Amino acid sequence: MPSSVSANQPFDLNGLKNSAEEIVTLAKAEGASAVETSLSIGRGLSVNARQGEVETIEHHRDQGVGITVYMGKKKGFASTTDLKQQSIKETVKAACAIAHYATEDEFSGLPDKDLLATSFPDLSVYHPWAISADQAVKQAIECEAEALSYDAEITNSEGASVSTFDGIRVLANSHGFVHGYPATRHSLSCSVIGEREGNMQRDYWYAVSRNPQNLENAASVGAKAAERTIARLGSQGLSTRKCPVMFSAEISSGFIGHFISAIRGGNLYRKSTFLMDSLDTKVFPSFVRMHEQPHLLEALGSSTYDAEGVVTKPRDIVTDGIVQGYVLSSYSARKLGMQTTANAGGVHNLTVESGELGFNDMLKNMDTGLLVTELMGQGVNTLTGDYSRGAAGFWVEKGIIQYPVEEITIAGNLKDMFQGIVAIGNDVDLRGNTRTGSILINEMTIAGQ
Fold this sequence. Notes:
Blueprint: H1 13-29, E1 34-50, E2 53-71, E3 74-80, H2 85-101, H3 133-148, E4 154-173, E5 178-196, E6 199-209, H4 218-232, E7 241-247, H5 249-262, H6 265-269, E8 290-292, E9 315-319, E10 322-323, H7 330-336, E11 350-352, H8 359-366, E12 369-376, E13 386-397, E14 400-413, H9 414-419, E15 421-424, E16 434-435, E17 439-447
Parallel strand pairs: 7-12, 11-16
Antiparallel strand pairs: 1-2, 1-4, 2-3, 4-5, 5-6, 7-17, 8-9, 8-11, 9-10, 12-13, 13-14, 14-17, 15-17
């Protein structure tokens, strides 16, 4: 069995593949009718700096293996972080023992063999960053220094951080599937505090990319963190009212995430969603389209197959406002009498098609209303669609930001909010697995003073 790797040492992909195949063989010898295993090795560097001084330098080394076995329709799972052969054998035996005592589930099992990926194009997701701890510290300090020098009202800092990670994961099952590939993820962030007339505010900014060459530079991240913090100084409350609400691009992905959760297989077969039986139903206005793009080069959500090895394909989830498909794994699909949508582990570069309006044009379109830039709390009920969350942002009149607001709650029902989308901006945030611009909703309730 392979052992963990040191920094800059190439990953032993073939060694991991061989180990995965050995695990399948061992489990079959123990009586398993089907087997799936996932092995991973990762390493990273994280640096945090505050007030121009190093706070932490961490080197990460992670490894693990998960083993799922099926004894007919009985399932057992066990895992370990020790990749030595003896530990692997014991973990296989543990998974098989658990399966023997498990309750039968007619829907359990591996994905259908003919749905597994058979070709593996290079999606350019591996771009290691040859950055030393000293260099990372320098970038973090530069980032924070830019933020602190941005304005005299920036009075303190929560620090800046630089992190880099590269790892490899191999997936194998008893259908003969075995594949793995390395991937990277790098980030830079900064958070600062501002003060004006005794009122203090904090805000932050971050950059993330698979390719370090595409990261926003340290000075820019620091300046944006400071700019956002200064903009929040002097925040006021609002009286209770109903008005248009615009979610900024960086939080719109969470809003779209509520829709994805509502059409996820687990919530559907448990009947715990307000979007039951919503296939071929008009949930959004006609101009709304959402689609997966799993094969975009260098994108954070790109993969040729899902967590089960099922091949991913570009597909529309919403077209002309109508739900075209759910978000299903093999298990949830069987429970629903459907076929997996290759979404075990989540969606892949979910893209909300944007309109022609930029951020400022979206504000003009709203005219008077609330721009939300931060949400707090978890007040979203997937069963009923009821939505109520703490919020902060800016009050807008005649398309122009007037002043920052805080200590308010925005409320509505997701069904009405989805149907009430007026426009989707072209200010698309690419820093996550959901790609969307700002979203304008015709009306929500604002609970304030």
